[in-house]
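thought: user wants a sequence for this fold. calling inverse folding tool.
action: design(structure=
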């Protein structure tokens, strides 16, 4: 049964719950990936949402975000989602045809303002999508903040 809350209410509830957090949207991980992710600093702090378990109804703020805003962007998964007050940044984790090493996630998060595949800008009554870097670009700039 669809959620009876308005889209604006669902947006507010989503940001109240997830602002300042990261979400990894996936369709399952390769063998050993999750175990390696959990070994990384902060790796257990990422919310992980399996798209294989996503229903068709919008019955939670997370469902609202994914079904109405993220999935229509047609980005590859796994997808790193960084929720901030003014925007939601999205960057896929693929390096070639498989997810990059979980240790690269912190590097990606450090550069996500400059290097994202899409963002959802938070407006008073909606989320406005904007494209970022090309989908085939997922290079990691390890020296982004180390240039002296």
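)
observation: tool returned 148 residues.
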């Amino acid at each position: 049964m669809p959620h009876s809350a308005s889209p604006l209410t669902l947006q507010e509830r989503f940001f109240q719950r997830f602002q300042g957090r990261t979400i990894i949207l996936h369709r399952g991980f390769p063998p050993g990936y999750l175990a390696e992710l959990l070994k990384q600093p902060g790796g257990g702090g990422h919310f992980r949402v399996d798209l294989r378990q996503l229903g068709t109804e919008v019955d939670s703020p997370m469902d609202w975000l994914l079904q109405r805003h993220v999935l229509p962007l047609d980005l590859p998964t796994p997808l790193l989602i960084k929720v901030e007050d003014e925007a939601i940044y999205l960057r896929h984790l693929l390096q070639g045809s498989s997810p990059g090493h979980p240790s690269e996630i912190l590097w990606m998060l450090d550069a996500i303002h400059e290097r994202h595949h899409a963002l959802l800008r938070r407006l008073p009554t909606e989320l406005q999508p904007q494209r970022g870097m090309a989908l085939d670009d997922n290079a990691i700039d390890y020296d982004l903040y180390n240039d002296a």
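thought: summarizing for user.
answer: Here is the designed sequence. The chain has a mean pLDDT of 89.
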